[in-house]
């Protein structure tokens, strides 16, 4: 199984709190193991941990990490680093190489990314050559490099589970699911 960790750079607490939360939730929903936040915002970390607790899985979040230290440690431990940008090689050209690696760090920025990151990354990958959301770039990348369909993943230990339905909302709470399984 592929290990993917997302490193979020440049989080500006007042401006980026929803986007950074969405980066974490997207990473979790599409199969990443966790997110490293290169900024100090404990509330974001707590929110994502709370969502993971309710919706299941083993996603971790670490707050206030050193971006260069995390990248170097990742690489020293056999991992590869993909920096998502609108500059670099186009994603379709990078996908075959990205799929070859079992340990991948995906970097997404917010404000201007330091030039050092472009040098430290094994790949600078353009998800389109137009300005757009880092959440969209992450989602497209994770979907394209997935070993199986990430949209059908089952999350262990979920308190809440959505049941697909054509109309309306159907959410099973953990206690209802346990009761249903007991009666079947």
- What's the count of strands? 9
The residue fraction in helices comes out at 40-55%
**Could you tell me the strand content as a percent range?**
15-25%
Radius of gyration: 17 Å
Low-confidence stretches: none
How does the overall form come out from the CA principal axes? globular
What's the CATH topology label of the largest domain?
Answer: Alpha/beta knot
- Mind summarizing the main beta sheet? 7 strands, parallel
- Give the structural class: alpha/beta
- Give the CATH level 1 class of the largest domain: Alpha Beta
Structure characterization notes:
It is found in: Cytoplasm. This is tRNA (cytidine(56)-2'-O)-methyltransferase. S-adenosyl-L-methionine binds at residues 84, 109-113, 127-134. Homodimer. The protein has helices at 13-29, 42-55, 67-76, 91-99, 115-120, 134-145, 174-183, and strands at residues 3-9, 34-38, 60-62, 80-85, 89-90, 103-108, 123-126, 160-162, 171-173. The protein has a seven-stranded parallel sheet, with helices on both faces. The two termini are 32 Å apart. The protein is α/β, with parallel strands linked by helices and 184 residues long. Helix 1 (13-29) runs parallel beside helix 2 and helix 1 runs parallel beside helix 6 (134-145). The chain has two domains: 3-152, Alpha/beta knot (3-Layer(aba) Sandwich); 154-184, no CATH class. The protein is built from seven helices and nine strands, in the order E-H-E-H-E-H-E-E-H-E-H-E-H-E-E-H.
């Amino acid at each position: 199984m592929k290990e993917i960790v997302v490193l979020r750079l440049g989080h500006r607490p007042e401006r980026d709190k929803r986007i950074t939360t969405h980066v974490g939730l997207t990473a979790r929903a599409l199969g990443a193991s966790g997110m490293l936040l290169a900024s100090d915002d404990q509330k974001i970390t707590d929110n994502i941990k709370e969502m993971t607790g309710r919706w299941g899985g083993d996603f971790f979040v670490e707050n206030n990490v050193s971006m260069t230290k995390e990248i170097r440690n990742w690489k020293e431990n056999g991992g590869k680093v993909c920096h998502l940008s609108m500059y670099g090689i186009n994603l379709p050209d990078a996908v075959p190489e990205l799929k070859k690696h079992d340990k991948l760090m995906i970097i997404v920025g917010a404000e201007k990314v330091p030039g050092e990151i472009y040098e430290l990354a094994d790949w600078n990958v353009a998800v389109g050559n137009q300005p757009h959301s880092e959440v969209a770039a992450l989602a497209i990348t994770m979907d394209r490099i997935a070993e199986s369909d990430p949209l059908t993943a089952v999350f262990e230990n979920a308190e809440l589970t959505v049941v697909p339905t054509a109309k309306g909302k159907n959410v099973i709470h953990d206690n209802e699911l346990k009761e249903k399984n007991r009666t079947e």
